[in-house]
Amino acid sequence: MTPGTGVTNPRQQTNTVSSYIDAWAVYGGTNQRLEWLRDGSVDGNVANNQATLMLPGGFLPRRDSRGDPASAPVIAVDGRLAAHPEQGMVAGDVRANENIALTATHTLFAREHNRIVGLLPSSLTNEEKFQIARRIVIAEQQYVTYNEFLPAMGVPMPRYTGYKSNVNANLGNEFASVGYRAHSQIHGEFEVEADADTYTAAQLTALQNAGVTVTRNGDELALGVSLNLAFFNPELLRMLQLGPMLKAIGGEPQYNNDEQMDNHLRSVLFQIPVSGNPECFEDPSLPSCFKGVVDLGAIDIERGRDHGMPSYNDMRRAFGLPAKTSFRAITGENSEAFPPGSGVNDPTSLDFTKLTDIDGRNVPLGSPDTAMMTRGTRKTPLAARLKAVYGSVDNVDAFVGMVAEAHLNGSELGELQQAMWAQQFLALRDGDRFFYGNDPGLSLIKSQYGIDFHHSLADIIAANTDIPKSDMNDNVFLVADGNLPAAACSVSYHVDSTWSGAFQVSLKITNLSSTPITNGWTLRYQFATGQDFQQLWNGTVSQSGTSVAVGNPSWNSNIPAGGSVTDVGFIAHWDNTTNAAPPNFTLNNARCARG
């Protein structure tokens, strides 16, 4: 046994990266790695480094960028990159090449660092400019996390009341090994849309030769990038260009966060294509295409076991939740029995019988509209399959039970995963002395140099690529309304003014349907960052925790077809740190677009 460990103090796996939200993926955790990443010589003396990060051609440097790949920082190498590891891109995190979406995100924030450096006066030293830019990038990542990402996932946070020295911000083993997984949301293909003049004819030919499908529709291009092409293939990002790739990441609805995982993540992950078989790039499901099988779902389960994670029910108890007593209770289904003639060994038991979009409307099986599918129902109940595999609810792996749970209202997560995320992200916020809400240096930077960190991820993408902000959703973690089925209503939520401890909002509620609302209306949404009502006019309001319901006044209960209510507004309290806009609205339980 490791000295100092025992039943009440078990050993823990070592976290090799920082727990804090501190742009580790940009800057890394050692001076040696950071010096290599910065422009300037590599001689152990950061005093002669430039303020900028090395970005040849606007992309992360390759391991051979300084001439000797052997002396470059360590990176993770797998899949096709194993043939030419010197072509791997280097970032703060060793996993930057794992897939091109990850590579793109790391590249974006490296560009953002250099952009900020360019805004600073020449009177500052290189080291001063570097540290100011780094401070802003860290704050931006924190701000995006708490103002956009967590609200979009449906994970509310209480008000921020300042740094707490007694809060441990280390990542819990349970969160890192089990809780922070949403692999089922990943599609098997990136759909890159761009103007036809974005790429030359030669570039399009090169993309096609690399396995990308190219479809031209007038002045528009649609590029299909199968996920098997994206693993450990950083050169593909350079070919696709950063802007179109980043736009593609947020351009379509993700799958539901559940137990159903795309075949690309179960059959071709990280694998090396067999030479001389071009069909491998056309149909990655061909078993003859890849050496071995890497199933990410199986890895997620094994990761929990390898890290000594408790069972699903024990994990629920550890997070203050009652244990589940049946498989139906886990999944929220009505039955845990197989239909007659089916069973766990029936290969058709996993066939889809129904697909639905974000509004629960049917999507025909096999139709082109399946790209809009967010949920699917299979031939057999999930509860039946879990029972056949595990026998007892007390045997269920924590990861499996977690992703099998029905979602909480307004959340992409089930009860256990929601509790794990809420606890961890609260600790990462309150236990970080350098969290943006506790860093007066950020206000000083703004007053002296005019540089603010309050930027959305769309702001950052627009500032560092050729994609204008108007081409993206305001919150890129949410699908733009134009890419979703037509909504029955729209809501304009406009913050008119903000002052210490309070803010004022004007609401415009529009009935987009052809049917008038005649028997009253109720607008529902969630406050994601601890806001609460102080005063409302021209309506009624009730708030329970984060859930808000704004109703019609007695004199204004109707909204005609195509008509609007424009005189509703309110004043609410906030914590002077984060005032996230509600990510979703419903009117009489129908989804609304953002006006």
What descriptors fit this protein?
9-stranded mixed sheet, 3-stranded antiparallel sheet, 16 strands, globular, 595 residues, 16% strand, alpha+beta, single chain
Topology:
Blueprint: H1 24-27, H2 31-37, E1 38-40, E2 49-53, H3 100-119, H4 126-153, H5 173-179, E3 189-195, H6 201-209, E4 213-217, E5 220-226, H7 227-230, H8 234-240, H9 242-249, H10 263-267, H11 296-306, H12 312-318, H13 327-331, E6 352-356, E7 375-378, H14 382-390, H15 398-404, H16 415-430, H17 440-449, H18 457-464, E8 489-499, E9 502-511, E10 522-526, E11 532-537, E12 540-544, E13 547-551, E14 564-573, E15 585-587, E16 590-594
Parallel strand pairs: 8-16
Antiparallel strand pairs: 1-2, 3-5, 4-5, 6-7, 8-9, 9-14, 10-13, 10-15, 11-14, 12-13, 15-16
Helix pairs in contact: 3-4, 3-9, 3-18, 12-15
Strand composition percent: 15-25%
Mean pLDDT: 93
Query: Per the principal axes of the C-alpha atoms, what is the gross shape?
Result: globular
The major β-sheet equals:
9 strands, mixed
What's the N-to-C terminus distance? 60 Å
Q: What class would the helix/strand composition place it in? A: alpha+beta
Radius of gyration: 25 Å
- Please identify the oligomeric state: single chain
Secondary structure tally, helices: 18
Low-confidence stretches: none
How many extended strands? 16
- Strand order within the widest beta sheet: 11-14-9-8-16-15-10-13-12
Helix content: 25-40%
Word description of this protein:
By secondary structure, this protein is of the alpha+beta class. Among the domains are: about 25-165 and about 430-460, no CATH class; about 185-290, no CATH class; about 485-595, Immunoglobulin-like (Sandwich). The protein is about 30% helix and about 15% strand. The chain contains 18 helices and 16 strands. It has a 9-stranded mixed sheet, with no helix packed on it. Strands 3-5-4 form a 3-stranded antiparallel sheet. It has a two-stranded antiparallel sheet with strand order 1-2. A hairpin with a 2-residue loop joins strand 12 and strand 13. Helix 3 (about 100-120) crosses helix 4 (about 125-155), helix 3 crosses helix 9 (about 240-250) and helix 12 packs across helix 15. The radius of gyration is 25 Å and the shape is globular. The N and C termini lie far apart (about 60 Å).
